[in-house]
Amino acid sequence: MQSMATFFNNATLSYNGITTTSNTVQGELVQVLSVTKTPVNESYRPGDTITYVVSITNSGSTAFSGLTVTDDLGSYPFGIGDTRVPLTYVDGSLLYYVNGVLQATPVSAGGPPLTISGITIPAGGNVTLIYDATVNQYADPTVEGTITNTVSVDGTGLSETLTDSATVSAGNRASLTITKSLNPTTVAENGQLTYTFQIQNTGNLPAAADDNVVLTDVFDPRLENITVTFNGQTWSSPANYTYDATTGVFTTVSGQITVPAATYTQDETGNYILVPGVSTLVVTGTV
Description:
Strands 5, 7, 11, 12, 13 and 16 form a six-stranded antiparallel sheet that branches. The protein has no helices and 28 strands. Strand 9 (about 75-80) and strand 10 (about 80-85) form a beta hairpin. It is an all-beta fold.
């Protein structure tokens, strides 16, 4: 849709110390260029790559050339008079299409901000720019985190700067990893052995009972007379786990393992520091 801006103008006539003003004329300036910015990704996590699509459409009968497209890469205020930029342009990722046909890559600088110069939009035509940006340490990874970045178009023939913004929210989910340790590493027959399972959550949501986390292991050598604790609390079978001493198969009951969400703090430099949520399962038995 074309947008219009109303303008007004009058003239002043001076003679022999007398000044007279003309009538005011009114006109409409039609804006024929429009820009939209669309993220391909629905959400992000630290380290992810977000793909952006910038579309510029010319509904007029005259081509525009020598335009510059600028992306602020999500810049936001930080501290007093300072900013942080949560996106890093992926060098070499830029694609430039005119009326759907791939063109030679225009001149660009990753900044921040990202600037792309020498863009031409034909009459009645369109340009599409596609590029990637990596989520860096200045992006908010918390449940309410978002990245909003703005693209602008400037150049000869434009009555005003064109802008459009896109917002991507932090991905809200648990993200679990597990490590297993053995103590002691050398044990005599009929001795006691302890397996410790540490489950870490680097996600911004806890792993709750309805996430149905299940840990399974096959103890070899098989353990006898096992005791099990989870986060320091004694577990019992079959309420919390099952164990077959003849096969060594150990399985926790679905939903018994829960892991708190990670916590995040933003330090004085603007970096988000992650501290994983942790839960610990300990199994001790006789070999």
